Amino acid sequence: MRGSIRKRVGKRGVYYDVVFDIGRDPVTGKRKQKWLRGFRTKKEAEAALAQAIAEVERGTYIDPEKVTLAEYLKEWHAARKHKLSLRTWERYGQLIEHWLIPHLGGIPLRKLSPVHLEKFISAMLEADRLDGKGKISPTTVRHAALVLNKALRDAVKKRLIPYNPMEAVDKPRKARKEPPALKEGELRRLMSAAEGTYLYAPITLAVYTGARLGEILGLRWRDVDFEAGCIFILQALKRNLKGELYFDEPKTPRSRRRIEIGPACLAALRKQKKLQAEWKLKAGSAWQETGLVCTREDGSPIDPHAFSSAFRKLASKLGIDANFHALRHTHATMLLKAGVHLKIVSERLGHASVAITGDLYSHVLPGMQGGAAQLVEEELNGR
């Protein structure tokens, strides 16, 4: 397979172009060539040429003049199967198959314009949900736009298109919701009502640690250190689009963490261990040994979706309007109001950065400003 790099001097400086063979015309037998233009450095051009030749030889080269957006998105999505978590990859596929391809798939990749994308976003905002339960949420529209933006950004890197048309389009804004925080009495009522059931341990762990539901349901007894008074978040239990349960890495690298726990949480874990022993005795041969802290009465893992639904029902029965994630927000809010440093709170929550924690809980921080101002004045005035 042949190819070469051509140097040219333009008004804005030196550029490098790439030309390579893509085979022979089936009718005339003549060589067919493709050009990739506008590389700023020779090194970039050499890398692009090597990639193009490799793709032609493997039979995976995409001719940008002929490929449609649908064809490109399918190739792009397939190539990311081992670069994304299973859940994220499946979600990308759902958005591509149900929204992007039906609305934009027939358009040639090189002819996709900002006008096409603006019309798509407007149409999607007016569309109904796939399950027929009302209008689609702006969050779903935003996610579809973000997936398309990532795909088109990669297309630019591969020189399949000269620019990313999504950059010229206003994307739906992310709805900003202040995380709800439950009252102390509501937390106690929830834990009391759940005691003796499989709901108890996850609820208690969320209140005392602020961990995510999947992290709690994936917690193993070997990840609990009773002597040191801590737990280790090393995996999460998730469910794919087929309804199958699987264990995966936590959400971000910083989500793998050590969380210190106090006497009350340790006591709750010991109570859970005793309860599991009773369940095991009752289940007999039907007991499933998973080593998990939180299980159903037969030892099997708890489906995150089923648990979320059961929690909602329990909260509603108690007159509390909250989902399970509200327990995580409550944990963070309590710590911040108690004066715990933002970085420590971020580490307990397993956020990718302190900035994310500060942005999510910015509504809590202003209330702490008055105390900070008072402390400064007391120091300057010698108390």
From TrEMBL:
Which Pfam families does the record cross-reference, listed alphabetically?
Arm-DNA-bind_4, Phage_int_SAM_3, Phage_integrase
Q: Which InterPro entries match?
A: AP2-like_int_N (IPR028259), CB (IPR044068), DNA_brk_join_enz (IPR011010), Integrase-like_cat_sf (IPR013762), Integrase_catalytic (IPR002104), Integrase_recombinase_N (IPR010998), Integrase_SAM-like_N (IPR004107), Tyrosine_recombinase_XerCD (IPR050090)
Q: Does the keyword Ubl conjugation apply?
A: no
Q: Which residues form the Tyr recombinase domain?
A: 177-374
Q: What does the UniProt keyword field contain?
A: DNA integration, DNA recombination, DNA-binding
Q: Which domain of life is it from?
A: Bacteria
Q: Name one GO biological process term.
A: DNA recombination
Q: Member of which family?
A: Belongs to the 'phage' integrase family.
Reported function: Site-specific tyrosine recombinase, which acts by catalyzing the cutting and rejoining of the recombining DNA molecules.
Specify the protein name.
Integrase family protein
- Native organism: Ammonifex degensii (strain DSM 10501 / KC4)
* Organism phylogeny: Bacteria, Bacillati, Bacillota, Clostridia, Thermoanaerobacterales
